[in-house]
Design a protein that fits this description.
81 residues; alpha+beta; 4 strands
Length: 81
């Protein structure tokens, strides 16, 4: 099932630092796992930090009358996405 958002939605809702950190994690093989639960529109994953520690990440997708909102959290030191 395709995710109910676009790259434009992401760029509008997340700051450039969060997007840069996410891209860095992906491009450098730091993503350990990703899970998408379509029924609850929840994306979760595990990321490997710079010292090898593991961090949990969650993004709740919230469709709102033709718009998309995201609620995000992580166990990382930055604690914001």
């Amino acid at each position: 099932m395709p995710l109910p958002y676009s790259k434009t939605d992401i760029r509008e809702k997340f700051d450039t630092g969060a997007i840069r950190r996410g891209n860095d994690c992906y491009l450098n093989g730091k993503v350990i796992s990703v899970n998408y639960v379509a029924a609850s529109l929840l994306v979760s994953g595990v990321i490997r930090g710079s010292a090898g520690e593991r961090y949990d990440v969650w993004v709740q997708i919230q469709p709102r009358g033709g718009h998309i909102n995201f609620q995000a959290a992580c166990t990382c030191p930055v604690n914001k996405l």
